[in-house]
């Protein structure tokens, strides 16, 4: 089954909701990057979070960065308006023992740190906002970010189910947001409902799709939009060259002195770029021309 993102309104409640299923994409990234189970769970949740945050986008991309004091150190996830998704974790081999049969994502991310959201609408300016981590469990942090930073009271659940061989069995999540017309009783209803709902990983393990899970919360729902989600990396030789140019003239001079072509591996898709010395020389000349 293809991965997808849905935009939903409940028939009988004043909320809006988004749901994502991304099992295939997270498994693809796990295989590409050789992620440990805990890194898979954490990155899968971050990628689901980025997808849900991108649900409103008509153009451009959203970039979710989570930096904590746990052993994973940093997680990046990027989702575009057209459904392309990628992500990476600084330390993909981190191993932590299960904590009451669960992968301790909060521990791996750490509680001290921040969550940073960058929105790139393809215009000149980027919209950027950052807050401190609440739990490091990622779903709570995304909801807290939206509630505090964007003043949209939100509830979020993200789940990645990892099998015995480390393979991704299920990955998905939902985001529910209050609307200006939402009344107090509806908020109470939702809080009560969510507090009684089993953890999302449990629901996913029972084979429930994200639509069914949202129906368990709201009853009848209407799907306004369904967007295909897929792994896609935006790296290119041009981007690698821009990074090299940013290193500056002196650094490139050093590379030329060493006399070895530059090998750059994209951390998202593991593609290797080999930049020959004559190209480095051209890039250096480009800088001195500008300077
Ligand atoms: Zn790449």
List keywords for this structure.
291 residues, alpha+beta, Hsp33 domain, CBS domain Like, 2 domains, ten-stranded mixed sheet, two-stranded antiparallel sheet, 10 helices, 37% helix, 31% strand, globular, binds zinc ion
Would you identify the CATH H-level superfamily of the largest domain? Hsp33 domain
Task: Report Rg.
Answer: 21 Å
Beta-strand percentage range: 25-35%
Shape: globular
Give the N-to-C terminal Cα separation.
53 Å
> What is the CATH third-level topology name of the largest domain?
Hsp33 domain
- Structural category is alpha+beta
User: What's the overall average pLDDT, rounded?
Assistant: 95
What's the helix-strand series? EEHHEEEHEEHEEHHHEHHEEH
**Going across the major beta sheet, what is the strand order?**
7-6-3-4-5-10-1-2-9-8
Description of the molecule:
The protein has 291 residues and is of the alpha+beta class. It has two domains: 3-231, 3-Layer(bab) Sandwich (Hsp33 domain), CATH 3.55.30; 237-290, HSP33 redox switch-like (CBS domain Like, Alpha-Beta Complex). Helix content is 37%, strand content 31%. The chain is built from ten helices and twelve strands. It has helices spanning 23-33, 37-54, 105-109, 139-149, 184-196, 200-205, 210-218, 237-247, 249-258, 277-290; strands at residues 3-10, 15-21, 61-68, 74-80, 84-89, 113-120, 126-132, 154-162, 168-178, 221-231, 262-265, 272-275. A ten-stranded mixed β-sheet has the order 7-6-3-4-5-10-1-2-9-8. The mean pLDDT is 95. Zinc ion is lined by residues 233, 235, 266, 268-269, 271. Zinc ion (ZN) is lined by residues 233, 235, 266, 268-269, 271.
């Amino acid at each position: 089954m293809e991965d997808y993102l849905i935009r939903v309104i409940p028939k009988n409640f004043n909320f809006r909701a988004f749901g994502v299923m991304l099992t295939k994409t997270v498994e693809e990234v796990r295989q590409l990057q050789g992620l440990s189970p805990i890194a898979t769970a954490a990155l899968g949740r971050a990628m689901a979070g980025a997808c849900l945050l991108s649900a409103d986008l008509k153009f451009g991309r959203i970039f979710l960065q989570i930096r904590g004091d746990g052993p994973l150190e940093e997680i990046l996830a990027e989702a575009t308006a057209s459904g392309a998704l990628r992500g990476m974790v600084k330390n993909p081999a981190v191993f932590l023992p299960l904590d009451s049969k669960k992968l301790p994502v909060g521990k791996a991310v750490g509680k001290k740190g921040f969550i940073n959201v960058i929105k790139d609408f393809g215009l000149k300016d980027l919209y950027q906002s950052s807050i401190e981590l609440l739990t490091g469990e990622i779903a709570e942090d995304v909801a807290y970010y939206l509630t505090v930073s964007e003043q949209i009271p939100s509830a979020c659940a993200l789940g990645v189910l990892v099998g015995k061989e480390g393979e991704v069995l299920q990955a998905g999540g939902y985001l529910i947001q209050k609307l200006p017309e939402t009344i107090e009783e509806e908020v109470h209803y939702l809080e009560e409902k969510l507090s009684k709902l089993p953890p999302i990983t449990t629901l996913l393990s029972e084979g429930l799709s994200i639509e069914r899970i949202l129906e368990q919360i709201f009853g009848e729902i209407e799907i306004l939009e369904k967007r295909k989600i897929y792994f896609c990396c935006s790296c290119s030789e041009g981007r690698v060259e821009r990074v090299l140019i940013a290193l500056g003239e002196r650094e490139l001079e050093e590379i030329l002195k060493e006399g070895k072509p530059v090998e750059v591996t994209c951390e998202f898709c593991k593609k290797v770029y080999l930049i020959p010395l004559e190209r480095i020389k051209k890039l250096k000349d480009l800088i001195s021309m500008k300077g």
